């Protein structure tokens, strides 16, 4: 069930009505029933797996809460990861082994052993693992009941594609569901509208052009760059659109979810990018993988190795394919090089007067790293490694001016999308100013603008496309 579908609109309207009519006493139950019903629409097998995972992990959490032996946390995390590995990576592992050892050793598997990836399993598995580890280490209080735990894991607004929430931030809110103020309800609705515009009007419009360009047999230099840049904006507006909808829906119910994006393409270096892109997942990998591996505590070589390993795993988390591993490795190398080369050295090397060097370094850094980010997206979107390598070869092989001028329209589209990204940053960093300016506009004009935006969204919703991160 997609957020932009009429079915979901009816579900949310009915749930919100019950949420506020029946009062605070029944709100947790209403959220639990709605969330489970929302996920049940994905299929009986997916729903059954979710129920089993909830039951087993909650039982383990009760054992962890009692303290003592460490085996419950090791076994539970191991089982959760094994379950995810089998359901998500079985085909990838088998095909990789078959390519190495040949079909004579690894024959084609029977059809009945094939699996279908359950919706949202990567997200809710990580959220459960984080909860169990935090509970084991005493970083959070346990859920007070199975009902509270069910809502913590399955809250419909963020179940399928995050944000990946932490119990210490989330559980206290579920214990005080007082609903939202009128301002929160209003701004939550506007955030939902903003997310729908990002997804339905921008991302889905770009999607058809991206599919066409990545499906080409050959690429010129501008074609490779434009395909990658368009996908960069498609995945950003698609995923951040989902997150805006999730945050807005939650805000309308008085729940504050963690922010997941802060205009990442305005980052000047890889550290900044990963502090602004998919923030909750970046923090998860930092806290539950990078730091346990040793982080930066055992020398520079170990630190850089840990960074590359973690990013390779992050790439594999996104998808069962070597293209995703390559994407992760590229970002791991970006991070390692950035940590190895002091930023002061680069700043001082800028060929501009000293008083302008900081600003020049900042803006040049944004431009250079945006280009590097665009290049990194190629294997993420390409169907296979061979296509990725072909596109890299084309992107780095100079074409004549005529080839670039023939793509002037799409270069202008990319420039407009980047300008829109800057506008989004300005509004986000100057919320008070933007709100004050908007409030000075006459109410009828504002109402007309809202209605117009809604009409545009509805006009573009004739063909509903799933969110990209639903695949992961």
SSE arrangement:
Elements: H1 6-21, H2 27-40, H3 44-65, H4 71-101, H5 121-136, H6 146-154, H7 167-174, H8 182-214, H9 221-252, H10 270-274, H11 279-290, H12 300-318, H13 322-340, H14 343-348, H15 357-381, H16 385-395, H17 401-405, H18 408-429, H19 431-439, H20 443-460
Q: What does this entry look like structurally?
A:
The longest helix has 33 residues. This protein has two domains: 173 residues, no CATH class; 289 residues, no CATH class. It contains 20 helices and no strands. The two termini are 16 Å apart. It is 70% helix and 0% strand. The mean pLDDT is 88. With 472 residues, the protein is mainly α.
Q: Report low-confidence residues grouped into runs of 5 or more.
A: none
Shape: globular
Radius of gyration: 24 Å
DSSP strand tally: 0
Question: What's the story with the biggest beta sheet?
Answer: none
Order of helices and strands: HHHHHHHHHHHHHHHHHHHH
Helix content: over 70%
What is the typical, i.e. mean, pLDDT?
A: 88
Discrete helix count: 20
Oligomeric status: single chain
End-to-end Cα distance: 16 Å
Number of domains: 2
Strand content: under 5%
- Structural class based on helices, strands and sheet pairing: mainly alpha
């Amino acid at each position: 069930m997609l957020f932009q579908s009429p079915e979901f609109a009816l579900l949310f309207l009915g749930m919100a009505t019950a949420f506020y009519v029946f009062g605070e006493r029944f709100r947790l139950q209403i959220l639990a029933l709605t969330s489970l019903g929302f996920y049940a629409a994905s299929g009986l097998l997916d729903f059954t797996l979710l129920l089993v995972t909830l039951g087993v992990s909650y039982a383990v959490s009760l054992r962890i809460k009692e303290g003592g032996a460490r085996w419950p946390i090791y076994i539970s995390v191991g089982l959760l990861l094994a379950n995810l590995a089998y359901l998500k990576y079985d085909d990838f592992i088998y095909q990789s082994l078959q390519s190495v050892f040949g079909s004579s050793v690894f024959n084609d598997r029977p059809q009945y052993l094939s699996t279908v990836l359950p919706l949202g399993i990567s997200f809710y598995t990580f959220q459960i693992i984080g909860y169990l580890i935090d509970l084991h280490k005493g970083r959070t209080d346990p859920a007070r009941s199975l009902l509270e735990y069910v809502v913590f894991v399955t809250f419909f607004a963020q179940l399928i594609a995050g944000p990946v929430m932490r119990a210490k931030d989330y559980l206290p809110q579920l214990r005080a569901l007082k609903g939202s103020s009128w301002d929160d309800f209003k701004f939550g609705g506007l955030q939902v509208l903003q997310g729908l515009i990002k997804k339905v009007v921008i991302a889905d419009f770009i999607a058809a052009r991206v599919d066409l360009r990545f499906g080409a047999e050959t690429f010129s230099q501008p074609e490779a760059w434009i395909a990658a840049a368009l996908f960069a904006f498609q995945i950003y507006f698609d995923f951040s659109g989902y997150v805006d909808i999730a945050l807005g829906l939650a805000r309308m119910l008085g729940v504050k979810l963690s922010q997941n994006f802060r205009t990442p393409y305005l980052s000047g270096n890889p550290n900044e990018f990963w502090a602004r892109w998919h923030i909750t997942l970046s923090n998860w990998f930092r806290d539950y993988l990078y730091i346990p591996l040793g982080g930066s505590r055992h020398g520079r070589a170990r630190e850089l190795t840990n960074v590359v390993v973690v990013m390779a795993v992050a790439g594999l988390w996104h998808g069962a394919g070597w293209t995703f591993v390559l994407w992760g490795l590229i970002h791991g190398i970006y991070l390692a090089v950035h940590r190895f080369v002091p930023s002061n050295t680069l700043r001082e090397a800028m060929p501009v007067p000293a008083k302008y060097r900081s600003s020049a370094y900042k803006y040049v850094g944004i431009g250079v790293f945006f280009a590097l980010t665009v290049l990194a997206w190629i294997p993420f979107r390409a169907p296979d490694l061979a296509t990725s390598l072909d596109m890299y070869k084309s992107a780095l092989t100079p074409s004549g001016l005529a080839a670039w001028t023939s793509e002037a329209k799409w270069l202008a589209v990319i420039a407009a999308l980047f300008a829109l990204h800057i506008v989004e940053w300005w509004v986000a960093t100057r919320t008070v100013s933007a709100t004050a300016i908007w409030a000075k506009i006459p109410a009828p004009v504002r109402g007309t603008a809202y209605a117009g935006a809604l009409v545009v969204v509805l006009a573009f919703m004739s063909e509903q496309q799933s969110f990209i991160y639903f695949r992961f």
